[in-house]
Automatic annotation (TrEMBL):
UniProt keyword rRNA-binding present: no
Domain of life: Bacteria
Family: Belongs to the glycosyl hydrolase family 6.
Gene Ontology molecular function: hydrolase activity
Keyword match Oxidoreductase: no
Signal sequence coordinates: 1-24
Protein source organism: Amycolatopsis speibonae
Listed name of the protein: Glucanase
Amino acid sequence: MWWKARLIALLALLLLGTAVPASAASPLDLTSGFYVNPNSAPAQWVAANPGDSRAAKINASIATNPIARWFGNDGDIGSTVADYAGAADSHDLLPVLVAYNLPGRDACGGESAGGAGSVSAYKTWISGFAAGVGTHPAVVIIEPDALGDFDCMTDAQIADRNTMLVYATQMFQQKAPNTYAYLDGGHTNWVDAPIMASRLSAAGVGNVRGFSVNVSNFYTTSSSVGYANSVNSSLGGGAKFVVDTSRNGNGSNGEWCNPAGRKLGVTAQTGGGAELLLWVKTPGVSDGKCGIAPTVPAGTFSPDLAVRLIDGT
């Protein structure tokens, strides 16, 4: 029973303090399904546009499914995360959260630039994030694209990034005992598997559950699982991995920024070749002013993009 696992985890915290390993309790065992964010961008758009002919389709196909919530720069990140993880916990459901606030993020793409102002600011932010999760069951994806951007960074920037990522993994290890945290590992057509494995290792993947692949991308689940297995083999086989299936129903056409003809993938579930298949990217949210949405900024929900993903056009 989930409540027995929760009791064991809480007793461990009382006996051992806050430095409890991330494997203290499985968040899957502590919950009865995935949390649907009632305030996701698609849900907010549907609520604000009930008379729009696209609203019912977007609500049924996207807004009512479990989607990760992304967290960026927030001076009160601990409270924000605690409120969200607590809301899911109150329903005995498992939330998926994305930590996305590295300085110089999206160094190669440039569409989602931003992040914390310094290494120390990031450390303060991610520490607060992990503390906000606390003992709540959760899945956390740590910094999408962070280990794929090295070709667009200086050696000093790479060193700083590794310092921040190692610290992030340590914070979830120490402060969020009922969380499965996954350090992002790019996608199947970006960085060769042995190189990505070495980057993951240097960034602290051994401190957390494992790594994620295909976040905000379009590669098929089978391709992503094959790549992740190769990465894991190079790591020694001890890590778990998750796949973002939010937009991979038709696979990739080689474009990363709002390409046409993509489609929703399978909704959140355990297994499927990975530990978890998740909707990490919010379907319908633009990658940037590019592709079939040249006027829609990154991070903005577009009902046209959403319907295209539903229809596969």
